[in-house]
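Anyone up for a design puzzle?
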């Protein structure tokens, strides 16, 4: 991994994904998986929308 740039994505490639990859050889984030499951089933919808909005705002800010 040394000298390699790793793209960050809140739901698809975050620090939990990275750590579980280093520890177990498989990239996984239970928090992101649970969040997406809750979002798709309707529970936690407002919190989910807020998190997605915040993530989009950070992505837009970084692209400038």
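Challenge accepted. My sequence:
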């Amino acid at each position: 991994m040394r000298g390699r740039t790793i793209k960050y994505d809140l739901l698809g490639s975050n620090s939990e994904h990275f750590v579980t990859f280093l520890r177990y050889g498989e990239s996984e984030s239970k928090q992101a998986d649970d969040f997406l499951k809750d979002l798709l089933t309707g529970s936690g919808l407002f919190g989910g929308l807020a998190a997605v909005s915040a993530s989009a705002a950070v992505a837009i800010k970084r692209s400038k």
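A detail worth pointing out: The chain has three helices and no strands.
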